[in-house]
């Protein structure tokens, strides 16, 4: 079974025990997070939401918060002697998907 979740303005296709890197969320390490489900299913059947599937949820565990490798950004204006060199490290959260629950009402 797989699910398509949305977080940080992006969508990710996940399965149980997957590890994904998402935009930084404000959760501490080893805490539980819940994601909005856009679609879920298997190879034969799939359920789509409008915009989310209200009866489904995906649970994950925050493994690590960190920063990616530094990238160098260089901007300039030709013939004007105007140059600017900057660096940027994008923050991320590493998450392990623990469980995909297709219908919450069955488990409440």
Please characterize this protein's 3D structure:
By secondary structure, the protein is mainly β. 0% of the residues lie in helices and 61% in strands. The chain contains no helices and nine strands. Strand 4 and strand 5 (46-48) form a beta hairpin. The two termini are 20 Å apart.
The low-confidence parts are none
The rounded Rg comes to 19 Å
Q: What proportion strand? A: over 45%
Envelope shape: elongated
Note the run of SSEs as H and E: EEEEEEEEE
Oligomer: single chain
Structural class: mainly beta
Total beta strands: 9
Amino- and carboxy-terminal Cα gap: 20 Å
Give a concise summary:
The chain is mostly beta strands. The chain is 0% helix and 61% strand. Strand 4 and strand 5 form a beta hairpin.
Which helices and strands occur, and which strands form pairs?
Elements: E1 2-7, E2 10-15, E3 19-23, E4 32-41, E5 46-48, E6 57-67, E7 71-77, E8 82-88, E9 91-101
Antiparallel strand pairs: 1-2, 1-4, 3-9, 4-5, 4-6, 6-9, 7-8
Keywords, please?
single chain; 108 residues; mainly beta; seven-stranded antiparallel beta sheet
């Amino acid at each position: 079974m797989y699910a398509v979740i949305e977080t940080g303005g992006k969508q990710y296709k996940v399965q149980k025990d997957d590890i994904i890197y998402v935009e930084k969320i404000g959760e501490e390490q080893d805490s539980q997070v819940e994601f909005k489900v856009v679609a879920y299913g298997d190879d034969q059947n799939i359920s789509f939401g409008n915009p989310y599937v209200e009866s489904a949820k995906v649970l994950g565990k925050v493994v690590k918060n960190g920063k990616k490798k530094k990238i160098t950004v260089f901007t300039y204006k030709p013939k004007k002697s105007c140059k600017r060199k900057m660096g940027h490290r994008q923050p991320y959260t590493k998450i392990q998907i623990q469980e995909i629950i297709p219908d919450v009402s069955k488990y409440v």
